[in-house]
Input
Amino acid sequence: MADDAITYMRRLQAVSPDQPFFIYYVPGGTHAPHHPTPEWIQKIGDMHLFDQGWDKLRDQIFANQKKLGVIPPDAKMTPWPSDLLKHWDQLTPDEKKMFLRQVDVFAAYVAYTDHEIGRVIHEVEDEGKLNDTLIIYINGDNGNSAEGTLLGTPNEVAMFNQVMVPVDVQLKYFYDAWGSDQTYPHMAVPWTWAFDTPFSWTKQIASHFGGVRQGMAISWPGHITDTGGIRNQFCHIIDIVPTILEATGIPDERSHILRPGT
Output
């Protein structure tokens, strides 16, 4: 996808460099199945980012969010559902090994996706158009999802058929293949819960923010000068198209649909 987007921009640059362009770049990351490339899995695995487990990860995310100002300084963490999900120190060594493999693959998918988007943005910069380009970056899939079951699954279809794949089976048959075309994997729910910090529940539970909130960043250097500024108001995906139309001065022809008698 990145190659296609870059090729498109280069062709336009060669033929009509002053023509405005629009790119709708929507990769599968990080929706299941988690399928990064092997080199990204290796790179993330070598970093040992998650060795301390999902409890510590949640604390780290919460602290980072406060530091960045995306949550109030007096915000309180939602409680961990100990009656549903195990704490990291309650796991066996085999469980920890398998769950770390699952989250490394997920993180590799995030990093791989982010890297490819970065290549596209870098092309805009190389063409000297970054200051005049509105970039709306929406990250996530309505909060992290919980189809991975309590144990994670090498095949999401198994979950839909209510089949739980035991950790010892995962270790024996799927550990090395996890994230490859031999699996259709998703990680264990406690990782999902941690990545939905500071909220509770997950993507399927729309009544809680953990099921609907995701990050968005906007860049328009020639127009937005508040670099790193935080916006706390609610936004919805349906706001994106009207924003683009207004920014580019294109009339929104859909407005007549909402008028009675038309």
User: Anything to note?
Assistant: Strands lie at 135-139, 215-219. The first strand starts at residue 135 and ends at 139. The domain at 2-224 is CATH 3.40.720.10 (Alkaline Phosphatase, subunit A). The helical segments are 2-15, 38-47, 54-68, 93-126, 156-160, 167-173, 189-195, 240-248.
